[in-house]
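Tokens as discussed.
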């Protein structure tokens, strides 16, 4: 843990921080175990608490967004070329059930579903696989990913900005609080979306 903290501190204030963020988020399109959100919030918290001003924070949003879009496009092409959705753990019942549940809604509004998917566990992977499986053309897929990834990156940096001013004294304590708050907000957004959808379905069935 201390080694990870030292590495993050050393990265902040150097161009490597943005490169590492972009790389982790690109690979995170498939490697969902990577702490992508924690990394963005941690670096964002330290940048906001530093003396670099607004520009490094904006660079972080751009780097995170570019990394995510590249990762999304890579998964899209991979899934299309080798039918990734039918292989290995991507075909597990829980993942398959999640993909089937959002398939119709994704076809109707890919941008909205992609945005919501960024805030729930496995949501990015699931929406990308659905996008590839559904036959959505590359242009619409790309537009939906850019929208979702920019919103998610701005959200994480916004969480960091809300706490970063206090990061000088206890940077990693503040980072931990910021990450937890980010995850809780993500679950809240997911719960609200589910409640609204169920109410809409109930009204349509009445």
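Sequence:
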């Amino acid at each position: 843990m201390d080694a990870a903290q030292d590495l993050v501190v050393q990265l902040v204030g150097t161009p490597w921080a943005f490169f590492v963020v972009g790389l982790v988020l690109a690979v995170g399109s498939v490697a969902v175990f990577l702490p992508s959100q924690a990394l963005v919030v941690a670096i964002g918290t330290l940048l906001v608490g530093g003396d670099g001003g607004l520009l490094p924070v904006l660079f972080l949003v751009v780097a995170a967004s570019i990394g995510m879009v590249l990762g999304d496009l890579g998964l899209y092409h991979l899934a299309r070329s080798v039918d990734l959705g039918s292989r290995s753990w991507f075909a597990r019942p829980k993942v398959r059930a999640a993909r089937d549940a959002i398939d119709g809604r994704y076809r109707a509004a890919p941008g909205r579903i992609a945005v919501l998917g960024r805030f729930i566990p496995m949501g990015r992977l699931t929406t990308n696989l659905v996008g590839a499986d559904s036959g959505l053309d590359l242009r619409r897929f790309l537009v939906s990913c850019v929208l979702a990834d920019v919103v998610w990156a701005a959200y994480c940096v916004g969480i960091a900005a809300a706490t970063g001013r206090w990061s000088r004294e206890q940077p990693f304590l503040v980072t931990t609080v910021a990450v937890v708050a980010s995850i809780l907000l993500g679950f809240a957004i997911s719960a609200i979306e589910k409640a609204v959808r169920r109410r809409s379905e109930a009204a349509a069935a009445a």
